[in-house]
Amino acid sequence: MSLPLPPPPPHIELTGSPREIGFQHGKQLAVQIRRQIQVYSTMFQRTSNLDWPAVRNISVVYQNTIRSLTPDIYVEMEGIAEGANLSILDIIALNARSEIALGLFSDGCTSLGWKLEGNCHGDVILAQNWDWTPRVQENLAMMSIDQPGHPKIYMMAEAGIVGKIGFNSASVGVCLNAIRAHPTDSSKLPIHVALRLCLESTSTQNAIDRITSLGGVASSQHILIADQSGAVAMELSPLGDTYIPCNKHGYIAHTNHFIANKCGVIEPHWPGVGSHERLARIDELMNGLKCEVGVGEEHEKIGDTLRQRVFSDTFNSPASICCMENPIKPIETRSRTLFCIVMTFSPGAAPSAEVVWGNDLAGPISEVHSLTMPWA
């Protein structure tokens, strides 16, 4: 049975030093962080046969890595733990959950980066459906992070996690697709820390340079990153990275398998996730759409068009672009689309995003639960 859609996420505004930002985060989302620990404790037990104390023990190696490579982010995590009255290892475990699970969590997600031409003046669109267990939806928050020396960040994030899906005031944005593959390398950055570094960057190249200079990422993942120049698919792994530019039509789409990275990771087939089918389907839909959008359509309408004609698509359901829960899977590990985000980066204008809450995506904007970033 599907869980009912929870109320929309809270908006929290975090400012100050790393410790102050962390403390505000932990204090305001303490209930949600504790619920997240319960959700992931159950998932680790089912997928990896690890109880939460064992997960915390494993997280010690990631604690050392984060403290060494990104000391400001580590101090922020300490602040989250203090604000929520939890152990720092609880917060490290949440932020390294993708790595500790050794690729056994089956997040979905379909993402798209698109540089438009014509009357849209070269706008860049960055969008995705985020598919995950419905049990985390009540623990999501819309966060802004205002810290000295960095662009202001706006993101949709899980409580307790320092980096997720969103953009910054420099018009740099990120989407995430999980890649289920081995090995992992605990001496490198957890992917949610890498996402935060991207969101602190002033351009796509600045983000790539920062992650590269710190030695890369600990697990195989895909970050779709964009700035006002366009989008790049960052296929990342502890064994090597590959960067895919937009195709001749100006877009790049991605799901949950490597397209071009041949670094040698072990990437088994994901039964029931439909990654290859979703990628073929979004390309099919974009081939029908690319000739219509960008010539005569203003950018305010493009989010609606993408949501109604691409991200609401249920071909190959339940493993569709708009993901539905699969009733034959254990209830703890079922996924569905929890939100759809469409970010717009326009020359000479402030970046913005529209978030539709839940997976009822096909209706006009007046009939869906729409949120915006930045918010008033």
From TrEMBL:
Matching Gene3D superfamilies, A to Z?
1.10.10.2120, Penicillin V Acylase, Chain A
Give the source's domain of life in one word: Eukaryota
A Pfam family found in this protein is: AAT
Residue span(s) of domain Peptidase C45 hydrolase: 119-300
According to UniProt, the name of this protein is: Acyl-coenzyme A:6-aminopenicillanic acid acyl-transferase-domain-containing protein
Q: Which organism is it from?
A: Mycena pura
List the top taxonomic levels of the source.
Answer: Eukaryota, Fungi, Dikarya, Basidiomycota, Agaricomycotina
